[in-house]
Amino acid sequence: MELVIQLIFAAITALIIGAAMMTVLVRNIIHAALWLIASFFGVAALYLLLEAEFIAVVQVLIYVGAVSILILFAIMLTRQITNQGAQQFVARWWVGAVVAVTLFTLVMAPALITATWVLPPQQGPAGAPAVLAGPAELGRGFVSEFLLQFEIAGLLLLVALIGAIVIAFEERARRRRVLTLAEEHALRSQESGVRSQNEPPQPLVAAERTERATAGQD
Amino acid sequence: MTQAVPIEAVLTVAAALFCIGLFGALARRNLVSILIGVELMLNAVNINLIAFWRYYEAQFITGQTFALFIITVAAAEAAVGLAMVIAVYRSWTTVNAESVDSLKG
């Protein structure tokens, strides 16, 4: 049984760390967001292994469901097609690597070498297995012990909602016109027709995007 | 679980995830990538909280409550941060963190 748990833990660890490495190293940012989703799933599985089921479900709902969709939408709205092959890392990326590795060593060396982790007995009184705090206790805590913090969290979410709308709001007059599918198809077929007569074919999408961007700036 | 896997293993995973996120936040140029790195770091902190809850005081709810509040704050941070990225893209037409330098001395 212990071996099985250890194997599951190893697999989950490989998923989390590997997906996180791919997230920060891969060049295409959409692939980075997809690897981030994989990493979130791995963390949710680790929560399940740690017997925090409610947190695992919340992790899947909020991180996998909401935050990654938000990130994908932000990528979609800010993507520069013409700038696809641009440099993704800063010039001195190795400084970041050195800082990260140094921090890892500085944190883990004392935690692994000098500290001894004395675990309390995992059994309740009279040898019964220890009772884990579950969603019921959690809910009771939110309406009694942590009531103030709960309300503040709700207020924070409201403020963040309003703030996000205010910051990202665009006035109607300045909004770029989004072509309908039919218009886009017409534009594309018209462009390709013109191009096939006059000049050798060029990358269609990039030319169209720049054209649309310049049209939108007027 | 607590007998099979020592707490050091879980803490190592969390520290590695945090450092990977830190590297992502420091080394990438795209603003969205920087936010992705921050999300990874918040996840690492949550793993630590849940691990300490599970190994040390599994009968109390404090650890899980703290983790839930961090998830809440992370969601709010992602919403506001990505809205700011979109606003920056609108006025600078770039999401490159190095190009947004109007406060540079």
Description:
The complex is a heterodimer of chains A (218) and B (105). Chain A contains eight helices and no strands. Chain A is an all-alpha fold. Chain A folds into three domains: 1-79, Up-down Bundle (Four Helix Bundle (Hemerythrin (Met), subunit A)), CATH 1.20.120; 136-172; 181-217, no CATH class. The model of chain A has no long low-confidence stretch (mean pLDDT 82). Chain B contains three helices and no strands. Chain B is 74% helix and 0% strand. Chain B has 105 residues and is mostly helical. Chain B has helices at residues 7-27, 31-56, 62-92. Chain B has a single domain (7-92), classed as Orthogonal Bundle (Helix Hairpins). The termini of chain B are far apart. Chains A and B meet through helix 1, helix 2, helix 3, helix 4 and helix 5 of A and helix 1, helix 2 and helix 3 of B.
The assigned CATH architecture of the largest domain in chain A is Up-down Bundle
CATH architecture of chain B: Orthogonal Bundle
Oligomer: heterodimer
Helix content of chain A: over 70%
Return the structural class of chain A. Answer: mainly alpha
What is CATH's topology name of the largest domain in chain A?
Answer: Four Helix Bundle (Hemerythrin (Met), subunit A)
The percent range for strand residues of chain A is under 5%
Supply the CATH class of chain B.
Mainly Alpha
Ordered list of secondary-structure elements with their pairings:
The complex is a heterodimer of chains A (218) and B (105).
Chain A: H1 2-25, H2 29-49, H3 53-78, H4 93-114, H5 135-143, H6 147-168, H7 181-198, H8 204-217
Helix pairs in contact in A: 1-2, 2-3
Chain B: H1 7-27, H2 31-56, H3 62-92
Helix pairs in contact in B: 1-2, 2-3
